[in-house]
Amino acid sequence: MSFSFKRDGTLIGPPRPTAIKVEGDAKAKKLFVDAATTALQNCLPLTFSAKLAQGIAGNVFTLQFASPK
After folding, report:
1. Which tens digit of pLDDT belongs to each residue from 13-47?
2. H helices of 1-69, where?
3. Beta-strand (E) ranges in 1-69?
4. Pairing of strands 60-62, 2-4
């Protein structure tokens, strides 16, 4: 998933799935993406120091979520 933060530790828009490698049909892939999005959102907002907030805001981060085998 790719996403960017605002200075206040919330996301700029919804996270974007970048590569989905999940066995199964489109429904299984959607369920996986929904679960990954929920997991990310449950960790927010993050708390940044003032200096870190200045440098982190707007940068794109990519986090890999792996499906169990």
Report:
1. 999 999 888 888 999 899 999 999 999 999 999 99
2. 26-41, 50-56
3. 2-4, 60-62
4. antiparallel
